[in-house]
Amino acid sequence: MIAVAKLDTFEINKINSRIRKHWMENYSEDENSSFHCWPMQYPSLNKNCFLFVGLNPSLKVKDKENGEFVLKSKKSLSDGKINAEIIRKDEKYRGGADRDKERGYPLCQVVFQEINEGHKSFESWDYIDLFSNRILEAAGLRKELEIVGRQKKVSWPEGGSAAEQLEIFRELLDSLKPKVVLVANALASNILIKEMDLKDAERGYSSLPKKIPIFFSSSVSGGHLDVFSRRRLVDQIRDRLARE
Asked: Most exposed residue of 15, 41, 194, 231, measured as fewest CB within 10 angstroms of its CB?
């Protein structure tokens, strides 16, 4: 079996360090703020794979109740032992290093397997988010990004943190060199189409630099994408790959 290419430890550590640095510079320890949730920390990541892109890492109510991903102070971000534990939790949530266990992204596994049926186009898949902060929800992002209308450019407010997080995402995307990208969130799709000036996206797909196909969808989980829409999406991706 062909070994799956991984992003090396140095590159992952660099990305995680940038995320932590950004977090510490932008969020106060005000007890009334929602800063007390850990930012995303990436575990091992697969290169040259089928890459899913989401909006931001979710944080469930039970995670807060159980104290999962909760910061006691900014100093916690500099604790190597605690960081290692958070990364281990994020890795477990992804389904382990091989992404073969049903954890936080079961429908990503289903879509990946359906695309690979009959003809194994990809050795692996992975998932990254546009924004690394667990507290940024869709409603808050719309307000922060000042999105007005589908055709207008996103406006990044002065002093806002979202633009910096998107730069980290761009760096990560460039490092991973995916073969195909599926943006599995409607708002994330809208943001990328505008910010990366992607052409002909109204067809539901476009191309990134170096001719990397990118497809747009609403969330593949949570009931947003019914089984028939998912099958049409899978067929569209297969047809596009067949023409490449």
From this structure: 231
Asked whether 84 and 160 are in contact (CB, 8 A), the reply is: no
Q: pLDDT, tens digit, for every residue of 5-55?
A: 899 999 999 999 999 888 888 776 665 555 567 888 888 899 999 999 988
Domains located in the chain, CATH noted: 9-243 (3.40.470)
Residues in the chain: 244
DSSP conformation letters of 92-148: HHHTTTTT-S-SS-HHHHHHHHHHHSSS---S-EEEEES---TT--HHHHHHHHT--
- pTM of the entire predicted model: 0.84
Dihedral angle sign, alpha carbons of residues 189, 223, 112, 55: positive
Q: CA 161: distance to chain centroid?
A: 17
Query: Which tokens hold the place of 231?
Result: 């099958």
Report helix, strand or coil for 149. coil
Q: Are 97 and 12 in contact (CB under 8 A)?
A: no
pLDDT at 190: 85
Name the strands in the sheet holding 212-217, side by side, starting at the edge strand that comes first in the sequence: 125-129, 50-54, 180-184, 212-217, 205-208
Cα–Cα distance list, 7 to 48, 83, 134, 148, 178 (Å): 9, 18, 23, 36, 11
pLDDT at 148: 47
76 touches 129 (CB < 8 A)? no
